[in-house]
Amino acid sequence: MRVEILGTAAGGGFPQWNCACRNCRLLRDGIFSGVPRSQLQVAISSDGISWFLLNASPDLRSQIESRHFLHPHSGVRHSPISGVVLTSADLDQSLGLLLLRELQPLQIFATTSIRRLLREDNSMFAMLERIPGQARWNDIIPGTAFELSASTGQPSGIECLPISMATHYPGYVSARRAGELDPREAVVGLILQSGSGMRLGYFPVVSQLVPALLQQLETLDVLLFDGTFWSDDELINLQNGSRTAREMGHIPVSSPGGSLDLLSGLRPARKMYVHINNTNPMLDVTGAEYRQVRECGWEIAEDGCHLEL
């Protein structure tokens, strides 16, 4: 299984368009010891020909154009992108679907509740279904594995296990509507198993680490994990009135009970942080936070990372 990490930043990218925090300011000035990042996007393939996207970021068009393996190679209208697996209905995970509206056959895998929010509640997503068979929505069930397949029905050989991760729906969902949906279907993480038996964990949004999840993570060969915030009070220190990282649904990287503390001893040969907020100090490769991450055996993924499983 080929894994291509097209983008690594949290919503807004790095630098963020309306942010003048230290990281963004120094990066714009050309003196930051780190690299710019587009919003989180991962593509996977078992054969290098047919590709599946893990979510669909707002930066998807530029991410496709900068990766030749995602370019059309035959016919006037064609794409090697066969499908998209959605882990939530958050805007920075789903807006990119609207960039795939040019009558391209597409498989979309999502929980029933995510499908209802996007397909039934929002008329813009009807642009994905202007002709019969353009977009085929496939309901997935947390805890039940399925095989990724193209719109032609061709199986990929990649098994996907969705795992319920959080119970809160995005802020644009009213309390009344959220009450009509299954809370277990709000956010999922993914375990993807290749034909070789190697397993990739994709967990960009993690609010807490419970024993059952830790047992699942022990079975992985590679882990892509929530690296959004360094500390729980990261945004509070920058702007009064902000919520903590945990209140926003993200376990912080540092401190007792953070992901470095709880996960550094896990089995996966490679542990990589993704979905990194522009304010996170570990983006500075000369900083103490970056050194701490590396000394604990973690990597900070960058746009363009390539993995083979």
How would the blueprint of this fold be written?
Blueprint: E1 2-7, H1 22-28, E2 41-45, E3 51-54, H2 60-65, E4 81-85, H3 91-94, E5 106-111, H4 112-120, E6 135-140, E7 146-149, E8 155-166, H5 175-179, E9 187-193, E10 199-203, H6 211-217, E11 222-226, H7 234-238, H8 259-263, E12 270-274, H9 288-295, E13 298-300, E14 305-308
Please summarize what this structure is.
The protein is 18% helix and 25% strand.
Describe this structure in words.
By secondary structure, this protein is an alpha/beta fold. The protein is built from 9 helices and 14 strands. The strands form 2 sheets. Strands 6-5-4-3-2-1-14 form a 7-stranded mixed β-sheet. The protein has a 7-stranded mixed β-sheet with strand order 7-8-9-10-11-12-13. Helix 2 (60-65) links the parallel strand 3 (51-54) and strand 4.
Q: Helix amount, in percent?
A: 10-25%
Q: Order of strands side by side in the largest beta sheet? A: 6-5-4-3-2-1-14
Shape: globular
Number of strands: 14
Order of helices and strands, N to C? Answer: EHEEHEHEHEEEHEEHEHHEHEE
Largest sheet: 7 strands, mixed
Low-confidence stretches: none
Global structural class = alpha/beta
Spatial separation of the terminal alpha carbons: 5 Å
What portion of residues belong to β-strands? 15-25%
Number of discrete helical segments? 9
Overall pLDDT metric: 95
Rg from alpha-carbon coordinates: 19 Å
Search tags:
309 residues; alpha/beta; seven-stranded mixed β-sheet; 9 helices
